[in-house]
Amino acid sequence: MTPLTHPTRTRLSDPLASAPDLTGRRAVVTGGSSGLGLVTTRALIRRGATVVIGARDTARTQRARDHLIAELNLPAGRLIVAPLDLIDPHSIRDFAKAVGDAPLDLLVLNAGISSVPLRHDHAGIESQFATNHLGHFALTGHLLPFLVPGVDPRIVTVSSALYTGATLDLDDLSSRTSYSPGRAYSRSKLANVIFAVELQRRLSAQGGTVRSFAAHPGMARTPLHATYPSAATRVLTGAVARVIGRDPGPADIGVLTAALNQEATPTLFWGPAGSKTIPDALGQPFAAVASDSATAAALWLKSEQLSGVGILS
Fold this sequence. Notes:
By secondary structure, the protein is of the alpha/beta class. The chain has one domain: 3-Layer(aba) Sandwich (Rossmann fold), CATH 3.40.50.720. The chain has helices spanning 35-46, 58-72, 89-99, 127-147, 181-206, 231-244, 248-251, 253-260, 293-307, and strands at residues 10-12, 26-30, 50-55, 79-83, 106-109, 154-158, 211-215, 269-273, 280-284. The longest helix is centred in the middle third of the chain and has 26 residues, at 181-206.
């Protein structure tokens, strides 16, 4: 059996120097209009890919798209915006139908919400778990068949290093009795990592070419810090991010390494290391909770039940 995590870390300098020409390849990036997602989108387009951005705020995303088209002098068809609300099963299904008309080579699960006030999806599931994990789980299930014929097809799930301190607690996904915005966010990021690792295990067992990676931005200066319910927390986290955090460009190196580097392995968790402006990519072994088979099986079953989408079961 292929190990779920590599035992030692790997550090790559200038990991995008050998990134392939992406001409003729198609990529989907969720939340690709700002922050890390915009950096990812720009990098893929510059290497020749056609990119579909899935976003809830299509007006803002269309403005970002038009700016990129003008900035890079691109044909209009190289960057496409399609509506995607990850908390709405109908929106996810419609998005998948709209973009699944040709093979895909890359799926970057980047969109997310962070530390918002308590809200629930249609089934009563806390919104961060529903959006950050369940929505991406369902989208992957819908789009996986279109990745199978792709060129070096990869799925990159953007998580957070905070996952190591989280607990999953699948018996209280509504969070109605006790809710901490920060803990709920960390739980969703733990679910992201478990999903990415378990998806890779199932893909490998199937013997196909699609690979599943997990990556993180470290401490990044992104709009997510502006969503905390507490004004004091917003000020504090924003100040910390300004002092020790990286701008979205350097912070995205782990995501881009997972998406494009030929040496990157799915058995490591990819993120930035070293310089704040020109960081290396560091692949670290997953924490034990990310590769626990019983936990992964329970999360997978619950995700299929809640989303109504089965994946490699």
